[in-house]
Amino acid sequence: MIPDTLAITLVGVFGITGSAIVLLCAVAMFRANDALSRINVFSPATGLAMPLILLAAYIYTLWHDGFSLTRLFMAVAGFLALIVVSSVASNVLSRSTFAGGAPVWRHTSPNRLSEAPGDEDAGLTEYESTLADFDIDDSEH
Amino acid sequence: MTIVLWICIGLLALAIVVGLCRVLTAKDMGSRAIVGDLVYFSAIGILTFIAMLVDLSIVLDVIFLSSMLGILATVALSRIQTRGHR
């Protein structure tokens, strides 16, 4: 269905790019300073590198076994699952890392996780919440 | 094709080694949890490329199931971090 040269080229490009992105994420973990940055830095590996490896695998099966509707469904479902599931997993892990007491950069704003639930000034800086208390329309800032 | 697949396996193995070095120097639990995730996904990639290398028919099954179930390890680690609280 696909000529040999094209299959090898596509598998090579997608597979090596995906693997290199995973390696770069591992190296970037040395350069990030806190746990939240490390979780953030890992997102390209699950959101971009793993779909690329999945694409390489799908092109390989297309070249090796021919087209099949089942395999197409598995590839598409796996692609969507990687993107959605890895985002949710990264969010859950970040929340629990914050709740577990990991240090956060002090100028982080808005920081809704550190405020009481139901606070109407949640996420505002102290200056903005003071303006909101007196109904001042500060359109210059 | 063999050379390409071995290059990919080598890059992913190198990523695992770099991640494990990071675990040795990490102080907090969150970094260790995310490196565990990195090792998991790298291992899935290596398994996929080995399946391509030896002509197994499970190439897509591996990555399909692991993408569906990959969240379980992460959620378990995050529950451990918060000592069971949500």
Task: Outline the structure in words.
The complex is a heterodimer of chains A (141) and B (86). Chain A is mainly α. Chain A has one domain. Chain A is 70% helix and 0% strand. Chain A contains four helices and no strands. Chain A has helices at residues 4-31, 35-65, 69-99, 126-133. In chain A, helix 1 (4-31) packs antiparallel against helix 2 (35-65) and helix 2 packs antiparallel against helix 3. Chain A starts with a helix and ends in an 8-residue tail after the last helix. With 86 residues, chain B is mainly α. Chain B has one domain. Helix content of chain B is 84%, strand content 0%. Chain B is built from three helices and no strands. In chain B, helix 2 packs antiparallel against helix 3 (59-81). The longest helix of chain B is centred in the middle third of the chain and has 25 residues, at 29-53. The model of chain B has no long low-confidence stretch (mean pLDDT 87). Chains A and B meet through helix 1, helix 2 and helix 3 of A and helix 1, helix 2 and helix 3 of B.
Radius of gyration of chain A: 22 Å
**What percent of residues of chain A adopt helix (DSSP H or I)?**
55-70%
Find the structural class of chain B using helix and strand composition.
mainly alpha
Order of helices and strands of chain B: HHH
What is the end-to-end distance of chain A? 61 Å
The main β sheet of chain B shows up as: none
Q: Structural class of chain A, please?
A: mainly alpha
Overall shape of chain A: elongated
Overall pLDDT of chain B: 87
Name the largest protein-protein interface in this structure.
A-B, 54 and 48 residues
How many distinct folded domains of chain A?
1
Strand content of chain B: under 5%
- The gyration radius over C-alpha positions of chain B equals 15 Å
Mean pLDDT of chain A: 82
Q: Helix count of chain A, per DSSP? A: 4
Count of runs of 4 or more consecutive helical residues of chain B: 3
Q: What level of helicity do the residues of chain B show?
A: over 70%
Order of helices and strands of chain A: HHHH
Assembly state (oligomeric): heterodimer
Keywords (chain A): Membrane, Transmembrane, Transmembrane helix
InterPro entries (chain A): PhaG_MnhG_YufB (IPR005133)
Protein name (chain A): Cation:proton antiporter
Transmembrane segments (chain A): 6-29, 41-60, 72-93
